[in-house]
Amino acid sequence: MATALFLLVGVVPLALAGGHDYGAALSKSILFFEAQRSGYLPGNQRVKWRGNSGLYDGKANGVDLVGGYYDAGDNVKFGLPMAFTVTMMSWSIIEYGNQIGASGELGHAMDAVKWGSDYLIKAHPQPHVLYGEVGDGNTDHFCWQRPEDMTTSRYAYRIDQNNPGSDLAGETASAMAAASIVFRRANPAYSRELLTHATQLFDFADKYRGKYDSSITVAQKYYRSVSGYADELLWAAAWMYKATNNEYYLDYLGENGDALGGTGWAMTEFGWDVKYAGVQTLVAKFLMGGKAGSHASVFGKYQEKAESFMCSCLGKSSQNVQKTPGGLIYKQRWNNLQFVTSASFLLTVYSDYLTSARKDLHCSSGSVAPSELLAFAKSQMDYILGDNPRATSYMVGYGNNYPQQVHHRGSSIVSVKVDPSFVSCRGGYATWFSRKASDPNLLTGAIVGGPDAYDNFADHRDNYEQTEPATYNNAPLLGVLARLHGGQGGYNQLLPVEVHVAKPIAAQPKPNPVKEAPFAAPVSIEQKTTTSWIANGKTYYRYSAIVTNKSGKTIKNLNLSVSKLYGPLWGLTKSPSGSYGFPTWVSSLPAGKSMEFVYIHSASPAEVSLSSYTLA
């Protein structure tokens, strides 16, 4: 019988008693980026366990490349995923800046974009020169050091006219163009600077074509461009049009849609490598917003492919995405959640585009209301935040049961602020990597790789496929969580949206809790269905059961009877007598506290009752 972590809470958490705290999740998801910062940290740095790092990046190449983000749990700065991260954070703000502002997080979100875009400006010192990597994965992964102690190579790798990289240049152009929209009102001069770089980079990507990992070969093992560069050229053109309204880029999309695959590829994934679903979604927006002009028929083909992606996620297409038994989109074992967050973002914005256009989604199984897309995106977020068979939150620091041994150098090694003693390259593996204990530094907001195809997850530091976080896992979350927290913006999302710099909203006083009437029994047990899915012709249900101590005393030796259970149960330990009690590491349930256990089967709720207990 499987056993999961036991949850002890002062009150039943929001995730269990009517929904998740998407506002708190949004704040944490943005805070994560501060833990990934490279360079000189600012005075308003909130992740205090980090220090300055990578202060000589680029020096060996005669260029200043200090700053930017470490991509994941290592200390390399990879340009392609970093640029995609900036693009997706910017797109989140462009679509849902009002909602992010209402949560008091717009300043932090814009700071997160600017930390990335400032670096991308440095990485583009000449019109046709772009630095795409600092450090290399092979030497970096040989060591386990916090970034403040790095002794590994910080050599920088670039693309240029003789060594092109249209995918890298195209994605960086997209990031610069999207960020220019974010800063158009708040910092017009900076916005124009970004747009100048974006224009040059698009020209570079288009005129000097080639895959970046053929020029920066050290990236092949880590961020190989499997899809090539055609998708990035279209993606960049879409962002350039969005940022400039220049018909040249609209024509580029119309005239190259067939040749570059935008109208042909029906995708079931979207991420740092494959951008087709993203550009198809943007072009569909242009079409529904009346911007297609003479390219309406071609843009219609883009939209067909965008809708194919949405339908495949919903399970209403002839080519559907795989899902776990718990209902999570599943693409691959290594860092699967990157695909979940990116797909959820596209579903969210497309739902709002359809609502603004007063249209439905058309799938092979029939018409689908826009609300259904948003509901599915919400189900994916809820799974990540804890509504899953393991009752595990895959966002570090959110909820009561989240990964404790994250595959992350900075998080897993004592802070340089606490112990400045040097951590050597291999010594870090011996002392910290192999340590079977929780991380000394909480990597708040990080979305780890996540569970496997069967909803299983092993919280071990060496399990990098499941416990390593990444910036591009988090970037799309800004938009999805802001939309779920703040609701629809009340405006037509097919029209241009201005990002206003809103002042943080003052915290509202919490209402006094409503006192409940005395409850006769010392323990209450409430069950509810949290999700369901169909597999092999059977409908499976995930049930959540909340056990609350209503007495004024601590409960010990709790024994529950669970009958008519036809599937796995998590969160209780089964005794030889057949009853269920606390996990072995928990001995009591204090007064007023609650615990959760979950189970899955293809039947009505199991019968759960109180067998015995003692009051301390």
UniProtKB/TrEMBL annotation:
GO biological-process terms attached to the record: cellulose catabolic process
Gene Ontology molecular function: any one: cellulase activity
Carbohydrate binding domain boundaries: 523-604
EC annotation from Swiss-Prot or TrEMBL: 3.2.1.4
Catalytic activity annotation: Endohydrolysis of (1->4)-beta-D-glucosidic linkages in cellulose, lichenin and cereal beta-D-glucans
Active site: 407, 459, 468
Protein name: Endoglucanase
Classification lineage: Eukaryota, Viridiplantae, Streptophyta, Embryophyta, Tracheophyta
